[in-house]
Amino acid sequence: MMNELLLMKSELLVTAVIFILLFIKISDKMSNEGVLRVVNLLLLLNVAAGFYCMNTVGELFSGMFRTNELMAFEKNMLNIGTLLISLISYEWLKNHKHLPEFFILMLSALLGMFFMISSGNFLIFYLSLELATIPLAALCNFDLEKKQSSEAAMKMIMSSAFSSGILLFGISMMYGTTGTLSFAELPQYLDGSPLQVFSFILLFTGFAFKLSVVPFHLWTADVYEGSPIAVTSFLSVISKGSIVFIFLTTLYSAFAPMGEVWYNLLFMLSVITMIIGNLFALRQQNMKRFLAFSSIAQVGFILIGISGGGQNGISSSVYFVLVYIFSNIGAFGAVQLISSFSGKETIDSYKGLYQTNPLLSWVLTISLFSLAGIPPTAGFFGKFFLLASGAEKGNYILITIAALNMIVSLYYYLRVVRAIFMEKNEQPIASIQGSIYEKAGLLICVAGIIAVGLYSHFYEYIYSLSIF
Amino acid sequence: MNLSLFIIIPLVASIAVLLSRNAQQVKWISFLASAAQLVLSFFLLSAFRSERANGNVSQMLFEQRYSWFAPLNIEYYIGVDGISVSMILLTAFVVLAGVLVSWNVEKMTKEFYFLLLLLSLGAYGFFISLDLFTLFFFLEIAVIPKYLLIGIWGSGNKEYSANKLALMLMGGSALVLVGIFAIYFMSGIHSFDMVKLSQVHIAIEVQKIFFPMLFIGFGVFTAIFPFHTWVPDGHSSAPTAGSMFLAGISMKLGGYGCLRVATYLMPEAAKEYAPIIIVLASIAILYGAFATMMQKDLKYINAYSSVSHCGFVLLGIGMLTKISIAGAVMQMVSHGLMTALFFAVIGMIYERTHTRKVEELGGLLKVMPFVCSVLFIVGLCSLGLPGFSGFVAEMTVFMGSWQNPDMFYRIATIAACMSIVVTAVYILRAIGKTAMGPITNEHFSHLKDAAWNERLAAILLVLGIIAIGIAPFWLNDLVSPGAEIIMSKISGVIIY
């Protein structure tokens, strides 16, 4: 039994970190800086250990929990992302009263995501989804003195409760028509009856809410703007990444027989998601809102990759999430650093940033170019593979729309670049000296953005894992 | 001959530029790197010629092939034929000249040279790629440096121009991207390898949809009508070296892509759409020429005349005869050298007089004999005087076009020929007013003639122009076999 439980190595590791943090909280002796040092070290160990226990394959609890190399790799990606977020938020966290709780909540959400990725049954999927969501709502409220932050938390909890309701409705009807909740057994009971299609669409809607796919995106911008940046980046990168992974699993294994239904859904949703996300991003002034809408558009691209199906569909989506972790956290990290030193968050206030903070400007620019898909950054490769996966089905209308959307997105990313490099400002943001943690975090992001793309072994490795 | 050096040298140089301590180091690193590239490209030329003389008839020479993204069959696959060699030579000339004329850039010198080198990296990579993925990769690498070059170091309405240029070029490459995917999946072999793809037959229905995408996509880069509007704004706002790179190299990326990717891989559709290409090219030629007549700013004059001259490239490709395609390539080389030189001279004049308005200039020959002589040379080349490269290239295009016996094609050829008259009008008027006559402004009489770096740049490009002008056969010999291979693919469809 003991050996079998070791299948859950990643989960056990995160749980251990949570317990250590609990003890730290109870003893209440450490200074914030000390706690941060310990936490970052623990998270780093967690990442290292995660790679050490990659080769575990198997099932537990009669198929409720299952894991394989791909899932282990996905969990490691999320681990890396969490570490990076912890690093870039150093300045903001340093002075926070409830530092250990922040990490306890964040890691609980991460634990939920791990179980969600590994779930083999709708029951555990639902449980872990809630575990991944509710701590996040508390995290949204972590700027305790800001009204906006509470508002964001309220919106987050309401919308996720609503989407969970829809999801549960779909699951229960699916159970009613098929008599099973197991991902592995579901395909043989799917006969495409209208009720099944309907319940599938409800399930799909639940996912769409979590992924903030248009038209279920309305909560995103407000929540992202109101939450502290660390939480925003966690929501937009880690949380979304984990949903993409489980979405892939359910579509490709449990709902494989309904391929046509979900292909058409993905086609329509990806088109409107890209277009609406881009159009809204065009007009944003606040960097957080701007990144929120741009991340909606990015999800549209991920949906194209998912719609491709097959090994390419999995590997391109997983690869894009990896790229997205580095690029988006890089961008959020720069925004976070500027915000915590100067309190400025609008694009206009970034004017002339290059004069005072050249390195930080390059970090932000490279991250934005990666998000826009400009070579030689990894974003270019990520987008290319997503579109290649989508093109495999021969739907060139979709690919053309996506390619044209890349131009629209370039326009608004260039707006920031223009403000940084070209526009003059009497009082640019003063020179910022981040701590070693932030520098390390941003450095890892930039290195990731460059290396993950040009060094093709990352993609080849993910491709070799991408078999269900 | 290791072709990868063409990518490695700019890469190493650009990293060295980032690490260097002062502006002087930056300049010398860039200068040495681009000079090394020029030497290397001459070495490539001689190696290429000796290989061919030794009877090596394989289509591409000096090939290198490494697997890059194995799951999608993406390879780092490079090699050259005569057409690529001539484009590499052009790039090497323009880059070195561009580095030299920017010697006095004081604002953010390091970043400026870094971006120039990055841009040249994209161009070299594009011209040696034989894999569609790497080709596209390098094509896009070349876009963003232009945006930053114009936006940061430009003049006038620079942010607007930079944005317009970046978005239009990205729009072009978005269409190219879709076309590349179509070729990849529809050819049935799931490969980006251009040589392999050229041996596969792609269904005509597929070609009919995706050829226009690829052609227009690359066409945006080479200012195909009606997607030429970025050219005047972009060129006029860019710093001198930026304009030189834009007109001299970047517009050639498009022409090369139209030829090597669109026409070569989808010959039947090229035949099908040839009339439309020719109509668009003729419009560009005539419209560009007439629009130039109305311009008062020297940079706008050269920008619009570039639209007109690049029209000849597309005309040559659209005519689909061996000579016209060779002419198109020669026009690319010739126009690249000529227009880079023109922008360099305009830059020199502007740096001294602080105006580019033709009516405010005058009598500069007396104060700046060297600069103005070069201005005459480049003007005469532009209007197609024998002895300069412009004549050779345009003549070849017209000859090739006339070979096409169809009446429609001949009318288009005649119409295009007429633009030469218009060119003569605007060129002679502009350079006459600038260089001759009385000195219009007191302040002009104290101006200094060209400095060593400017002289070197100008002499370099003038040598190129004259070398093609008086001995066109070497370029023709270089380019023709490549054109022949492209035509052999097409002559299965049409016979001339």
Give me the secondary-structure topology:
The complex is a heterodimer of chains A (468) and B (496).
Chain A: H1 2-5, H2 9-27, H3 32-52, E1 58-60, E2 65-67, H4 69-88, H5 90-94, H6 99-118, H7 122-140, H8 147-178, H9 186-189, H10 194-211, H11 218-226, H12 229-254, H13 259-282, H14 287-308, H15 310-342, H16 353-356, H17 358-372, H18 378-391, H19 396-421, H20 436-454, H21 457-465
Antiparallel strand pairs in A: 1-2
Helix pairs in contact in A: 2-3, 2-6, 3-4, 4-6, 4-12, 4-15, 4-20, 6-7, 6-12, 7-8, 7-12, 8-10, 8-11, 11-14, 12-14, 12-15, 13-14, 13-19, 14-15, 14-18, 14-19, 15-17, 15-18, 15-20, 15-21, 17-19, 17-20, 18-20
Chain B: H1 5-19, H2 23-53, E1 61-69, E2 74-80, H3 82-101, H4 109-128, H5 132-141, H6 143-153, H7 158-186, H8 194-198, H9 204-221, H10 230-237, H11 240-265, H12 267-293, H13 298-319, H14 322-353, H15 364-367, H16 369-382, H17 389-402, H18 407-435, H19 452-470, H20 472-490
Helix pairs in contact in B: 1-2, 1-4, 2-3, 2-4, 3-4, 3-11, 3-14, 3-19, 3-20, 4-5, 4-6, 4-11, 5-7, 6-7, 7-9, 7-10, 9-11, 9-12, 10-11, 10-13, 11-12, 11-13, 11-14, 11-20, 12-13, 12-18, 13-14, 13-17, 13-18, 14-16, 14-17, 14-19, 14-20, 16-18, 16-19, 17-19, 19-20
